[in-house]
Amino acid sequence: MDLGAIADNWRTIAALAAPAECAAVVKANAYGLGIDRVAPVLWRAGARNFFVAHFKEAVALRALLPEAIIYVLNGLLPDCAADYAAANLRPVLGSAPEISDWSDYCRDNGAKLPAAIHVDTGMHRLGLSLEEAVQLSGTFRLLGFTPSLIMSHLACADTPGHVLTARQRMVFADVVRRFPGIPGSLANSAGTLLGRDFRFELVRPGIFLYGGIAINGVPPLRPVVRLEVKVVQVSTAPAGETVGYGAAQRLKRPSRLATVSIGYADGLFRAGGSTDATKGVEAILHGQRCPLVGRVSMDLATLDITDLPDGVVQRGDAAVFLGDGISVDDLAARSGTIGYEVLTSLGARYARHYVGG
Questions:
Q1: 56 flagged as catalytic
Q2: Catalytic residue flag (residue 245)
Q3: Which of these is catalytic: 27, 71, 264, 340?
Q4: Which CATH number among 3.40.50.300, 1.10.3470.10, 3.40.50.80, 2.40.37.10 corresponds to the domain 227-344?
Q5: Are strands 146-151 and 184-185 parallel, antiparallel or unpaired?
Q6: Which of 105, 245, 264, 350 is the catalytic position?
């Protein structure tokens, strides 16, 4: 895990976003990379606003960063306002009951605590409806709390030219105008790259910090993760034999095979296996890409090393599944998923080594 790359990626996005402020999204254990190591590095790089999904994540982050501004994206559950207040957390309020609960708590305790207001501009997942937002805009100064941010979330920003993205920006601009004096935040990683009109006062990059692709066709920033696993056995098999569970792939030539210590329990998706009809993931051994053959099992996968010189691959050698030109999005594409899922699925059995930062 290259913490220096994460810091550099944040600085790059922050410079691009200026004069908008640049936050950091560290939910899901900093996208699977370890919030305890990642968040302090981002703080030292200059991030002051952080976003997580759950209350427990926010409490863990507060212990790491006592002075940070921490928003909790998944909102305010019933009877939890006192817990958020005690930890100095800012809930992202996306419904009338949440707004009422936070406002009542603040009034009862004589403290106009900050919180974000989430407005749904077209994703239809979380947030006030447009009608609710317009109604609230006429009375928001009477709330018992201090609205510190008006925010929404882009549904299709990673797809260039998608009609919904432009529509969401237009709707959000109208909403923000109705709440004068309150900063707006619409842009995720992809939204930040779409231009100044999408950035408003605060951008919220996530995947771009961690070396993933934010917009299809736009190269990622510095890679962050290198994933190596050991070869546990080298073997041979004649043409016509099958490899792995289900006999999903039949060898077309006499083959040399390297079985490696990684499986779906470690986040190498079963869908990344190979069959007679489809090619799965690849790994690099001794500088050469080697295709996976057969299914991925819980703890093991098998690579075809026939094109390498005989005897080069030995038990204990390192096979690289991420790094040396294989990005998280390359691995994801071969597995029928996205880079986000690759990162957040990295298993607990790996020995994690942090460099830089």
A1: no
A2: yes
A3: 27
A4: 2.40.37.10
A5: parallel
A6: 245
